[in-house]
Write a structure and sequence with these properties.
By secondary structure, the protein is mostly helical. The chain is 73% helix and 0% strand. The chain has helices at 2-29, 43-52, 59-71, 86-121, 126-140, 143-157, 173-199, 202-209, 214-226, 228-242, 246-251, 258-266, 270-298.
C-alpha cells in the first residue's frame, strides 16, 4: 500500500509541475502584459514595477520562481490587487465554490445513481427508456440554459430563492441544482452501463445458481463493481465542481473561485493565474488519488499495485 500511495503521489507531483509549465507558457505567449492598461505611467516607472514583480527576468528564472514559491508556500502578491497574496484571494473565494460544488455533487449522486440503477434493472422497458431520455436531455442542456431557467422559475416567478448574488444562507441551492442536475445525467448513464455489464458476469450467474436473493446479488456483489466507472468520473468532476463552474457562477453572480480563473487570464495577472492553475491541479490529483485508493479497495483484481 505504501508503494502504491508513494507512486501516485510522485505521479501527481509530476502532473502539477506539468500544469505549471504549460500554464506559464500559455500566459507568456498570450498578447499583453500585467501593465497593459496603465498607459499613462512613465516608462521608468513601468520598468521599476516590472522589476519589482520579477517580470524582467529570463523566462526560466520566472518559472523557477513560481515553482519554488508554491512548493515552499511563500505565495506571491497579485499584480492586479496589490497588498493581497494570491493565497488570500483563493482562500476567500474557495469556500463559496466548495459549498456549491459539494452540494452539487451530493445532488448528482442522489439523482444519478438511483436513475441509472432503475434503468439497468429494467432494461428495454419504459422505465429504462424514460431514464435514458432524461439523462440525455441533462447532458445536452448547458448550464447557461438551465441556470437562467431555474433562476427565472424559482427566483423571479416563485420567489423561493434569490435569482442571483450571495446574500442569504440558501443562495447555494439554485447553482447547486444547476450543476447537480447536469452531472447526474452523466452519472446515471455510467451507473446503468456499469451495472448492466456487471450483472452479465459469470460470478453473478454463479451467485444466482447458489440461490442468493436478487437484492443480495445487486447490493453485495454487483453494485460495488458497477460503481467503478462512476468513481473514475468523480475524480476530475469533484475537482471541477469544488473549484467552481465559471458559467454557473457568472449566471448567478457568485463570488466564487471560478471568476478568478477567467479574470486572472484576462487581466494578465500571472501570479493569480499560476496559483489558480496549481490549486486546480492539486485538487484533481488529490481526488484522483482518492479514487485510485477506493478502486483498489473495491476491486481485488486491481489491488494496491504501484
Amino acid at each position: 500500500m505504501f508503494r502504491f500511495i508513494f507512486s501516485r503521489v510522485l505521479q501527481g507531483l509530476a502532473v502539477i509541475l506539468g500544469v505549471l509549465c504549460i500554464t506559464f507558457a500559455l500566459l507568456k505567449n498570450a498578447p499583453g502584459s500585467p501593465l497593459q492598461s496603465e498607459r499613462n505611467i512613465p516608462e521608468h516607472i513601468r520598468a521599476q514595477r516590472m522589476a519589482a514583480s520579477g517580470l524582467d527576468q529570463p523566462l526560466p528564472v520566472q518559472l523557477w520562481r513560481y515553482i519554488v514559491s508554491f512548493a515552499t508556500f511563500d505565495f506571491p502578491v497579485s499584480v492586479r490587487t496589490p497588498g493581497r497574496g494570491v493565497d488570500e484571494i483563493i482562500l476567500e473565494a474557495f469556500p463559496v465554490s466548495a459549498q456549491i460544488g459539494l452540494s452539487a455533487l451530493v445532488i448528482a449522486l442522489a439523482l444519478g445513481i438511483p436513475l441509472g440503477a432503475l434503468a439497468a434493472l429494467r432494461p428495454n422497458t419504459l422505465d429504462d427508456r424514460a431514464s435514458m431520455v432524461a439523462a440525455t436531455l441533462g447532458i445536452c442542456t448547458p448550464s447557461m440554459v438551465l441556470g437562467p431557467l431555474l433562476a427565472l422559475v424559482f427566483g423571479l416567478k416563485l420567489r423561493w430563492f434569490n435569482a442571483s448574488g450571495w446574500y442569504d444562507a440558501d443562495d447555494w441551492v439554485l447553482p447547486a441544482l444547476t450543476l447537480g442536475i447536469i452531472y447526474s445525467a452523466y452519472i446515471a448513464r455510467l451507473t446503468r452501463g456499469g451495472l448492466r455489464e456487471t450483472l452479465a458476469q459469470e460470478f453473478i450467474r454463479t451467485a444466482r445458481a447458489k440461490g442468493a436473493s436478487e437484492m443480495a446479488i445487486i447490493f453485495r456483489h454487483a453494485f460495488k463493481l458497477a460503481c467503478l466507472p462512476v468513481l473514475n468520473f468523480l475524480g476530475p468532476t469533484a475537482a471541477g465542481l469544488m473549484t467552481g463552474s465559471i458559467i454557473t457562477e457568472s449566471v448567478f453572480q457568485l463570488p466564487g473561485l471560478g471568476q478568478h480563473f477567467v479574470g486572472a487570464a484576462v487581466n494578465r495577472d500571472y501570479d493569480l493565474a499560476m496559483a489558480t492553475a496549481a490549486f486546480y491541479a492539486l485538487l484533481i490529483v488529490s481526488f484522483n488519488l482518492l479514487v485510485d485508493f477506493l478502486q483498489a479497495l473495491l476491486n481485488p483484481r486491481i489491488g494496491f499495485k504501484a
